[in-house]
UniProtKB/TrEMBL annotation:
InterPro entries with a match to the protein in the record: MFS, MFS_dom, MFS_Exporter, MFS_trans_sf
Signal sequence, renumbered to the chain: none
Keywords associated with the record: Membrane, Transmembrane, Transmembrane helix
Membrane topology label: Multi-pass membrane protein
Subcellular location: Cell membrane
GO molecular function: transmembrane transporter activity
GO cellular component: plasma membrane
SUPFAM superfamilies referenced in this protein's UniProt entry, alphabetically: MFS general substrate transporter (SSF103473)
The organism's place on the tree of life at top rank: Bacteria
Record protein name field: MFS transporter
Annotated ranges, domain Major facilitator superfamily (MFS) profile: 221-411
Length: 411
């Protein structure tokens, strides 16, 4: 099997301008930005709010876990919703569900409020992430799919770099009321953007004359990319949920440094995706996976080591930079792989698979690894690093074997 043509995957200023001029592309970009912005704004805030309100680490992890669990469940069905109701309605409903209920967090930090609101918001996030990513790929010409993927990455990076620290900063200075109401206000912007999306539906299955990929064949095509995404997302779930309370232990009050660290993660996600895309131009997708996984593992392990040593808080920023670069590289590699492994009529399925791996990994990191909080916060970070090493090594060896077999077949 020859490597797919990825010569269009690197960003090019003139091409990006033409891509953005495609009808519906800017509203789609805004919706992806708002989806991840609404998610990022409260992602570290709610667990920290729970811990500081006396709710404990288990409820803090469960808040992220329930959000992500409902997100994944919704993502499974979103391709069907898109085919039945179209992109505009699905995106509009998603914007309302994600941001609208956020103000209800003001009712208290008890389990029914925290978990109930998180579940409803998770459903909205699931709709927005799958439909938004698929819409960008649907609107883009086939020759610009790589650039469209980079556009999604840019929206995610901006959201993470801007909204993660904003949420923590406003919480530290004004309490939960400001980030919660800000998240609610995003619903209005999201509805406005959704109304500007063209009235289109996903391409019918089989419309591109390619057989629908189903069952074990579908799982086989998406599994490697999903596994590496899950592993680095688990590390991100631990960092985003437990870095603020970890720094509270280290420095007394760590929300400010944690916010800056998460902003650096978001900024380096863009850098990592750009580097991976440039590498893919020359060598095809998948070649940058060892670098990305190594950086992610080193970054999250570094956080654990620094926490164990009660190191100066500024050193955590270095670890965040390293992790963010690896996280971004793997995002780009896995998303490109998912889109390229399925026909265009299954873009929604590819988008769902990638988003499910991202969000389920984030939730698993918060809940499953959060159970090890009794052994100390550093333990969670070390386990996350180990998972990255094991999964990254296994997938890299598998893909190299597949590539070697393909070369022998082509030869």
């Amino acid at each position: 099997m020859a490597k797919p043509d990825v010569s269009d995957s690197a960003p090019h200023p003139a091409a990006e301008e033409k891509l953005l001029s495609t009808p519906g592309m800017i509203p789609a970009f805004v919706l992806v930005l708002l989806a991840f912005g609404g998610w990022a704004l409260l992602l570290p805030v709610i667990p920290l709010h729970v811990v500081r309100s006396g709710g404990g680490d288990v409820l803090a992890g469960a808040a992220t876990g329930v959000f992500m669990g409902v997100t994944v469940l919704t993502q499974v069905f979103t391709p069907k919703f898109m085919r039945r109701f179209g992109y505009r309605l699905v995106l509009g409903v998603g914007a309302v569900l994600l941001s609208g209920p956020a103000a209800l967090y003001l009712l208290g930090a008890n389990a029914p409020v925290i978990l109930g609101v998180s579940g409803v918001r998770g459903a909205g996030f699931g709709l927005l992430t799958v439909a938004g990513s698929a819409l960008v790929a649907e609107l883009a010409p086939a020759s610009k799919l790589g650039r469209a993927t980079s556009l999604i990455g840019l929206a995610v990076g901006i959201a993470e770099a801007g909204f993660l620290p904003t949420g923590l900063y406003t919480y530290e200075h004004f309490g939960v009321i400001v980030p919660a109401l800000t998240a609610t206000a995003l619903a209005v912007v999201g509805i406005g953007a959704a109304m500007r999306v063209p009235t289109i539906f996903p391409a019918p299955l089989g419309s591109d004359h390619a057989a629908e990929v189903r069952g074990l064949a579908l799982a086989g095509r998406l599994a490697p990319a999903m596994l590496i995404m899950i592993s680095v997302a688990m590390a991100f779930g631990v960092i985003s949920t437990f870095l603020p309370p970890t720094l509270d232990d280290v420095a007394g009050s760590g929300a400010g440094v944690a916010g800056l660290a998460l902003a650096l993660v978001g900024a380096m996600v863009v850098a990592g995706r750009t580097a991976a895309g440039a590498r893919a131009d020359k060598f095809g997708p998948g070649d940058y996976i060892p670098v990305g996984m190594a950086a992610a593992a080193l970054g999250v392990a570094g956080i654990g080591a620094l926490a164990l040593a009660h190191a100066p808080t500024w050193m955590f920023l270095i670890a965040a930079v390293i992790f963010g670069f690896g996280f971004g590289a793997i995002q780009n590699e896995s998303l490109m792989g998912a889109f390229q492994r399925l026909p265009k009529s299954q873009l929604g399925t590819a988008s769902a698979g990638w988003n499910i791996s991202f969000d389920s990994g984030t939730g698993l990191g918060a809940i499953v690894l959060g159970l090890f909080a009794f052994a100390g916060y550093p333990t969670m970070f070390f386990i996350a690093a180990g998972i990255c090493v094991v999964i990254g090594t296994a997938v890299t060896l598998y893909w190299r074997r597949v590539a070697a077999n393909a070369r022998r077949t082509d030869g």
